[in-house]
Amino acid sequence: MGTFLSITLILLALTSAANSCLPSDRAALMAFKAALHEPYLGIFNSWAGPDCCHNWYGVSCDPMTKRVADINLRGESEDPIFEKAHRTGFMTGSISPAICRLNRLSSLTIADWKGISGIIPPCIANLPFLRILDLIGNNITGEMPTDIGRLSRLTVLNVADNRLTGTIPRSITNLSSLMHLDLRSNQISGTLPTNFGKLRMLSRALLSRNRLTGSIPFSISYIYRLADLDLSFNRLSGPIPEGLGKMAVLATLNLDGNRISGKLPTTLLNSAISILNLSRNAIDGNIPDVFGPRSYFTAIDLSYNLLRGPIPKSITAATYIGHLDLSHNHLCGPIPVGSPFDHLEASSFVFNDCLCGKPLRPC
Ligand SMILES: *[C@@H]1O[C@H](CO)[C@@H](O)[C@H](O)[C@H]1NC(C)=O
Ligand SMILES: *[C@@H]1O[C@H](CO)[C@@H](O)[C@H](O)[C@H]1NC(C)=O
Ligand SMILES: *[C@@H]1O[C@H](CO)[C@@H](O)[C@H](O)[C@H]1NC(C)=O
Predict the structure, then answer these.
(1) Which residue, of 166, 222, 276, 313, is most buried by count of CB atoms within 10 Å of its CB?
(2) Where in the sequence is the signal peptide annotated (predicted)?
């Protein structure tokens, strides 16, 4: 019995020694912690003692290499630590470049702390195993690291809701594993790389509410898996590439609030797209008369453009149209009768040149 107990104790001691973190990883984490200030929850109180692989809040290690693999610090979470404090997280300070010494890091999530400022340390581009970089909802400034394209394993790049400036690094198109790109609500300017379509694994590209200029690169339509493209509220100009309507799985296309001009591509109305928002642009010409059984729209918003001519008759052949907004254009003529027009309100049609019939005044 005594022998059994001591063997167990020896085994336990061995396992915990074997799992304890590398002193250099621990030192990097301590330097990372020292650059941050989290006054309300005390999440860093657990970052003490020699073994950073056990019970350090938000830190986990790879069981094989014993190296720090994940840092997961979310300011909005269901964790009991937040419930006890009856508040969401708030943190100030900056992301220390010491983080780059954790060269086995696979995911770095420092999200929704609102007050973290400073820049994204450029050395982040040297973390060869990084798969997830999620810094949403802070107060980060400066430019995205120029060399970000070196992160060949990166699948998620989310820096939304910060105050980033500068342009999209050209190297970004080298991120051949990238599936989810979220740059929403920053102050990023310049044009989209013309070879954006190199991002073949991309399924969501969310870049709304920035200051992007230039036209939409037609290469985007080569991204076979792209399901969600949001470029709304930028300063994009030029025409909508035809190819966007020929994409296999593109379901949401939001281009509203730009300076897009030219005609409405016929392809868009007869595509896999189910949410189409082109509101607040300068699209002109007629609405193409090409709706058909493939047209299935949860929402289609063409309001605040320069569209002319009648509402096409074929629209009644669409399989489904939930929400339709054609207001604030220069449309003219009778509103077609039948589905989907039987459930639409006048607000879908107001402020045109001479539309008539239900739900507006009789012709
Ligand atoms: C973000 O930084 C700006 C400028 O330093 C500051 O005025 C603002 O209060 C910060 N926001 C938060 C949420 O800390
Ligand atoms: C993309 O990767 C290739 C091959 O590694 C490299 O030659 C090229 O300079 C990279 N492009 C950019 C813009 O960093
Ligand atoms: C389309 O975008 C505009 C903003 O430009 C927004 O007000 C509107 O609600 C959106 N339409 C739909 C159907 O979501």
Answers:
(1) 276
(2) 1-17
